[in-house]
Design brief:
- The complex is a heterodimer of chains A (about 110) and B (about 220).
- Chain A has helices spanning about 5-20, 40-50; strands at about 25-35, 60-65, 70-75, 80, 95-100, 105-110.
- Chain A is of the alpha+beta class.
- A three-stranded mixed beta sheet of chain A has the order 2-1-6, covered by helices on one side. Chain A has a three-stranded antiparallel beta sheet with strand order 4-3-5, with no helix packed on it.
- Chain A is elongated, with a radius of gyration of 18 Å.
- Chain B has one domain (about 1-210): 3-Layer(aba) Sandwich (Rossmann fold).
- Chain B has eight helices and eight strands; from the N terminus they run βαβαβαβαββααβαβα.
- Chain B has helices at about 10-25, 40-55, 70-75, 95-100, 145-150, 150-155, 175-185, 200-210; strands at about 1-10, 30-35, 60-65, 80-85, 110-115, 135-140, 160-165, 190-195.
- In chain B, helix 1 runs parallel beside helix 4 (about 95-100).
- The longest helix of chain B has 16 residues, at about 10-25.
- The termini of chain B are far apart.
- In chain B, about 45% of the residues are buried.
- The chains are: A alpha+beta (about 110), B alpha/beta (about 220).
- Strand 6 of chain A pairs antiparallel with strand 1 (about 1-10) of chain B, so a sheet runs across the interface.
Chain lengths: ~110, ~220
């Protein structure tokens, strides 16, 4: 549900940056999205196509770079990818971990002309 | 031409959240964001907290629901100021809604602000609102596997209150697995088994809360 609000915030950033660059058209938007952020690609694309109507970003494509969820073990400092149902360290087996990647929600770059 | 942006999409929300916290700090209000799935016992916890603390500290409540004012009416009967936010379909409270609600409260008359978020274990974890502490009410009928299914929520909070502990004898809830899973995701978190109806653990929750507020439990 909240993809609508987030897509609107994302579009605000895109249009603001495009305006600063005095661009006439936005061709593409690249997003960096953490695996844990719960941000659904299809949903964003759907709302984006709706919200861009009448703006210079109309027709722009949105692409996602998924950032895998990673954590650092508090015991042995090993950094590892989080598996769905297992958040314990693959080296020492400890399950005291700190999430380092996977919560991102960034506009990475935009392509304009 | 490609333009590097590297801008956090949630930054607009985060900025308002920071302003909310500054406003609360200015008025010496301690805000607790209470999150849970629907039916876990958020409103019961708020009611029990008000009943036991209202002679000690001044409490205010923000009730977040998709629709209706059922909860605000219940809380209002306890004689504390309450503002109802109806998100109109929205799955979480965001910083802007809290900003509006704060504008409708007399903050000088409140020491502790309890904010009941929309019942949902996903979206409320992603939106900052300007609180000082986040509390998750989980409950035994939901099962001990919830930390595995909603890791970000369990990772985000400062305390997990495991409600309906009095029902445990009738359920296959494994407290050991639950506690280990929670600690695995979030080492610093306090896990407090409680029962809003039976009263178990409520004193421990209140002590934790008062300590966070910098007060004597």
């Amino acid at each position: 549900m909240h993809e609508l609000a987030i897509t609107q915030s994302m579009l605000d950033i895109v249009l603001d940056q495009a305006e600063k660059a005095e661009a006439e058209r936005v061709l593409a938007v690249k997003l960096s999205v953490g695996e844990l952020s719960g941000f659904v690609e299809e949903s964003v694309q759907f709302y984006f196509n709706f919200l861009v109507k009448g703006t210079i970003a109309e027709g722009a494509t949105v692409s996602f770079t998924m950032v895998p969820a990673k954590a650092r073990c508090r015991n042995c400092a090993r950094v590892f990818k989080l598996k769905e149902f297992d958040w314990s360290c693959p080296d020492c087996g400890q399950d005291s971990i700190e999430i380092t990647d996977g919560k991102e929600l960034f506009v990475e770059s935009i392509e304009v002309e | 031409m490609e333009i590097k942006v590297l801008k956090n999409i949630l930054s607009a929300n985060d900025e308002i959240a920071e302003r909310n916290r500054a406003l609360l700090d200015k008025n010496n209000v301690f805000a607790v964001n209470i999150m849970a799935s629907p039916g876990a016992g958020k409103t019961s916890l708020i009611l029990e907290t008000i009943r036991r603390l209202k002679d000690k500290i001044r409490i205010g409540v923000i009730e977040g629901d998709i629709t209706s004012s059922v909860d605000a009416e219940k809380v209002g009967k306890e004689g504390v100021p309450v503002v109802q936010i109806n998100t109109g379909g929205g799955c979480h409270l965001d910083a802007n809604m809290i900003q509006n609600a704060l504008g409708n409260m007399t903050l000088e008359d409140i020491d502790l602000l309890l904010i009941e978020n929309v019942g949902n274990l996903v979206c409320p974890a992603e939106f900052t609102i300007g609180d000082h502490k986040k509390v998750l009410v989980s409950s035994t009928p939901e099962g001990h596997d919830k930390p595995f299914k909603y890791p970000l929520m369990f990772h985000t909070v400062d305390a997990v209150l495991l409600n309906k502990i009095d029902l445990k004898p009738y359920l296959d809830f494994d407290l050991e697995i639950f506690s280990q899973a929670v600690k695995g995701i979030n080492e610093k978190v306090e896990v407090i088994p409680i029962s809003c109806i039976g009263g178990q653990g409520i004193e421990r929750w209140l002590s934790w809360l008062l300590i966070q507020m910098g007060r004597k439990p």
